[in-house]
Amino acid sequence: MIDINIPFICKKCGHQVTPAELTCRNHCTQCLYSLHVDREIPGDRASTCHSLMEPIKLDQNSKKGFIIIHKCLKCGKEIANKVATDDAFEALIRLSQKSNLNQA
Questions:
Q1: How far is the C-alpha of 1 from the C-alpha of 73, rounded, in Å?
Q2: Whole domain around residue 57: which residue ranges?
């Protein structure tokens, strides 16, 4: 498995994003946007799309915990990514409200 974990500047908000500690970072810690760079597995960096991916939903996975569902603004592919411990709490709250996560 290829695992690329390098700092980057967010293409959506311009925030300087640092590498993740325990996994491969793939989204901005401030606005939660990502780039469509992975094709099959996190960190493979095999996609040729490279469009912005909008955070559209916050979900919960019994094994991974909270996950962000990103949707590519160009090709429509959806990819699930684990929430990072340093993701902006306010951005996660806004996404959870948009996702109706608290409704039974």
A1: 26
A2: 8-99
